[in-house]
């Protein structure tokens, strides 16, 4: 897997789950559960093992404002780092003090601090501050989210020896690889073209020799486009938009969407009846979500060790 090049240089192996674990099916169906939690636990073990005798990776998370969801995300990332013995620090800038200048100065300090391997700027920013120029200030090597134009550019060029790959699509690639699902010559349809999920996902599929189609809100006949997919990645952000009739029998379905359903439970872009037709599918929760955090942890270790 070409996108694994830097991870391999840091000593990480593509996670492989056991044949026994591959037998896990969604109850009452023949659809394999793509268990992201399990793959994430394998990645955590690698982080712990590889860390012995090496520089401790450290993440600085910059949290500006009081957005409750952002506070939850940052604290859960901090917990995942602590779980593998990596350091993390949250710099909280209250709304009353959050200005572009303050954020830039905070990033400059973290860029200059040799003990910091990765910098995460939690979005959205308050007070109407444009995230673009602030994100762009992060040093390329410390951009562990992989959002910078330089990292996206390297991904587009397929130059993986120096690129940091965006965490969520990187997690999808790790999940597919862990289950031994090949992409070469397969038709991959990615629904969604955001800079953080859809576009890098499509580029990663291309790097693995899939034939890639990117669908979006202006795509005509979305259902028919999706039904051609051998591998369907839903990164739309619309609860249950992908139903059984969008899926070719036997396709592999990756659900990136995260929503809080009317019943208060987490749910994805894909409805449950898809289990009846797909050969394998990632659940929500327990699919792509845990791997996004795993890849952030791994990207920070890669930044520290390569
Ligand atoms: P986003 O920036 O809102 O992008 C959504 C994409 O879906 C856009 O490209 C949009 O098309 C497309 N879209 C919207 N409505 C559509 C429709 N009716 N038919 C076809 N395409 C449609 O969202 P995002 O940041 O990529 O995130 C997508 C989902 O993934 C969200 O639920 C988010 O919470 C979740 N997410 C999960 C993780 C994780 O760790 N599991 C990480 C990141 C995001 P246009 O470009 O034409 O508007």
Structural notes for this entry:
The strands form three sheets. A six-stranded parallel sheet has the order 1-11-8-7-5-6. It has a three-stranded parallel sheet with strand order 3-2-4, with helices on both faces. The chain has two domains: 55-144, Leucine Dehydrogenase, chain A, domain 1 (Rossmann fold); 163-289, NAD(P)-binding Rossmann-like Domain (Rossmann fold, 3-Layer(aba) Sandwich), CATH 3.40.50. Helix 2 runs parallel beside helix 10 (288-305) and helix 7 (167-178) crosses helix 8. The model has no long low-confidence stretch (mean pLDDT 97). It is globular. By secondary structure, the chain is α/β, with parallel strands linked by helices. It is built from ten helices and eleven strands. Helices cover 36% and strands 14% of the residues. Strand 9 (259-260) and strand 10 form a beta hairpin. Bound molecules: NADP nicotinamide-adenine-dinucleotide phosphate. NADP nicotinamide-adenine-dinucleotide phosphate binds at residues 168, 191-194, 196-198, 215-219, 222, 235-238, 241, 256-258, 288-289, 292. The site of NADP nicotinamide-adenine-dinucleotide phosphate has 25 residues, from helix 10.
């Amino acid at each position: 897997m070409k996108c694994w090049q830097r991870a391999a240089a840091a000593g990480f192996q593509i996670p492989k789950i056991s044949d026994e674990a591959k037998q896990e099916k969604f109850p009452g169906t023949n659809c394999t559960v793509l268990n992201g939690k399990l793959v994430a636990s394998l990645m955590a073990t690698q982080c712990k093992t590889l860390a012995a005798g090496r520089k401790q990776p450290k993440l600085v998370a910059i949290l500006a404002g009081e957005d409750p969801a952002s506070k939850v995300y940052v604290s859960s990332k901090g917990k995942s780092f602590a779980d593998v013995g990596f350091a993390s620090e949250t710099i909280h800038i209250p709304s009353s003090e959050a200005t572009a200048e303050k954020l830039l100065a905070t990033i400059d300090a973290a860029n200059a601090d040799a003990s910091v391997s990765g910098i995460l700027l939690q979005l959205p920013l308050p007070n109407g501050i444009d995230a673009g120029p602030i994100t762009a200030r992060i040093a390329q090597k410390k951009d562990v989210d992989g959002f910078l134009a330089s990292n996206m550019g390297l991904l587009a060029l397929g130059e993986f020896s120096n690129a940091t790959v965006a965490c969520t699509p990187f997690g999808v690639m790790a999940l597919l690889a862990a289950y031994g699902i090949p992409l070469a010559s397969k038709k991959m349809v990615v629904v969604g073209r955001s800079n953080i999920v859809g576009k890098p996902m499509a580029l990663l599929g291309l790097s693995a020799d899939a034939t890639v189609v990117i669908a979006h809100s202006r795509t005509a006949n979305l259902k028919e486009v999706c039904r051609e997919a051998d591998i369907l990645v839903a990164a739309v952000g619309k609860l249950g938009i992908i139903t059984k009739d969008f899926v070719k029998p036997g396709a592999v379905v990756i659900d990136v969407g995260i929503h809080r359903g009317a019943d208060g439970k987490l749910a994805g872009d894909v409805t449950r009846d898809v289990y009846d037709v797909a050969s394998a599918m990632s659940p929500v929760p327990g699919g792509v979500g845990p791997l996004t955090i795993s890849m952030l942890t791994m990207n920070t270790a890669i930044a520290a060790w390569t």
